[in-house]
Specification:
Blueprint (H helix, E strand, L loop, with lengths): L1 H11 L9 E5 L6 E4 L3 E5 H6 L3 H16 L2 H10 L1 H8 L11 H6 L5 H17 L6 H10 L18 H18 L17 H7 L10
Parallel strand pairs: 1-3
Antiparallel strand pairs: 2-3
Helix pairs in contact: 3-7, 3-8, 4-5, 7-9, 8-9
């Protein structure tokens, strides 16, 4: 799992990419991923199981890379907790008790419409630039929409302020334009996955307290 995630991250973080980012894979049934201060992206195994391909995971990762690059998580936490308390908590000062709630805040963090629209556009452009079908992002959104999960982590992508079907339609248009500019094959017509990752094997290998790995 780590090798596959690293390979996808290396592909996305090539020359001119978003820079050094660390991805942590967390064993949990939550269908979620989030950007944390310090150029870290946390991904739950529940999300990996909800996505049918490496391309779609790359799209989610590209989306989170935008939040990292624009420090959306830090800005949102600062607004929620107050900059003084946040800096004290991160520095282990008098506000260190607030640090206990930072992770819970990050897990449930939802960005504004502007930040999400920016991350959507960033994802399709980065995918196209790295030779990955940019339509993987609207497909990822559709997979999350259709996953049937009631997990609140999904709400990070299905923001009620931006109806999901409209968001998917907008992402499809952006993906088509990005693919054309990159001279890529028209979205949806690829005959093979863009990334050399055995996604089915990766998902089967994921550990879970609820679903023990198959022998």
């Amino acid at each position: 799992v780590t090798a596959a995630v690293d390979a996808i991250l290396d592909r996305l973080s090539g020359p001119g990419g978003a820079g050094s980012i660390e991805v942590l894979v967390i064993d949990s049934s939550l269908v979620n991923a989030f950007a944390a201060p310090g150029r870290v992206v946390c991904v739950y195994t529940g999300l990996l199981k909800a996505l049918p391909s490496a391309d779609e995971f790359a799209a989610v990762l590209a989306h989170e890379m935008s939040h990292v690059q624009n420090r959306d998580a830090l800005a949102s936490l600062a607004r929620r907790l107050g900059m003084t308390v946040l800096l004290s908590a991160l520095g282990g000062g008098r506000g260190s008790s607030a640090a206990q709630g930072l992770l819970a805040d990050l897990v449930s963090l939802r960005y504004g419409r502007e930040a999400e629209d920016r991350a959507d556009a960033f994802a399709v452009e980065l995918l196209a630039d790295r030779g990955i079908d940019p339509a993987a992002w609207p497909r990822a959104l559709a997979s999350l929409r259709d996953s049937g999960t009631a997990n609140p982590g999904l709400l990070r992508y299905l923001d009620p302020h931006s109806p999901i079907d409209e968001r998917i339609a907008r992402a499809e248009k952006e993906a088509a334009a990005a693919g054309a500019r990159a001279g890529a094959q028209p979205p949806g017509r690829a005959t093979a996955p863009s990334l050399a990752v055995d996604w089915d094997a990766l998902v089967r290998s994921l550990p879970s307290a609820l679903e023990p790995p198959q022998e």
